[in-house]
Write a structure and sequence with these properties.
By secondary structure, the protein is an alpha/beta fold. It has 5 helices and 6 strands; from the N terminus they run βαβαβαβαββα. Strands 1, 2, 3, 4, 5 and 6 form a 6-stranded parallel β-sheet that branches. β4, α4 and β5 form a beta-alpha-beta unit. Bound molecules: flavin mononucleotide. Its cofactor is FMN. One of its GO terms (molecular function) is oxidoreductase activity, acting on NAD(P)H. Belongs to the flavodoxin family. Low-potential electron donor to a number of redox enzymes.
Length: about 140
Amino acid sequence: MIGVIFWSGTGNTEKMAYEVAEGIKAAGQEVEVKSVSEVSVDDAAAYEKLALGCADMGAEELEDGEFEPFYAELESKLGGKKLAIFGSYGWGGTWLEDWGTRIKDAGGELVADGLAVLGEPDDDGIAQCQELGKTLANA
Ligand SMILES: Cc1cc2nc3c(=O)[nH]c(=O)nc-3n(C[C@H](O)[C@H](O)[C@H](O)COP(=O)(O)O)c2cc1C
């Protein structure tokens, strides 16, 4: 089972999460999509593979009320796990690079570069999300 876990303030990253899940399903794998508020760190760590999504907030940072504390606790449990990261941004878009470095430093295996989409995903963004899901499923 693959988990897709996201934080989204205005729905853009949420939309991405469901399209990543479509790609996972299209590759023949089972998937559960959950908002970060509905999943514990232990439940997240129990998924065989993870797609994590968070909008670009603060100053090129993960959202710090819910997602950053969740991820900080999850980080120590990522060793050897295959992951994909994604999110929507407004004007910068570099937060996924820092996040990717944190994942690699924690021993997680990123199956692809982080997928950043400007604002609401358009058809191209949707296709990229689905492709990311397929890549994770087949990794
Ligand atoms: C408080 C706040 C801080 C933000 N900080 C950034 C930022 O540092 N860089 C950036 O590119 N976009 C920033 N944004 C824009 C959001 O990343 C953008 O609106 C995104 O589409 C929101 O995705 P969501 O609908 O999943 O919440 C910020 C938005 C808010 C509300």
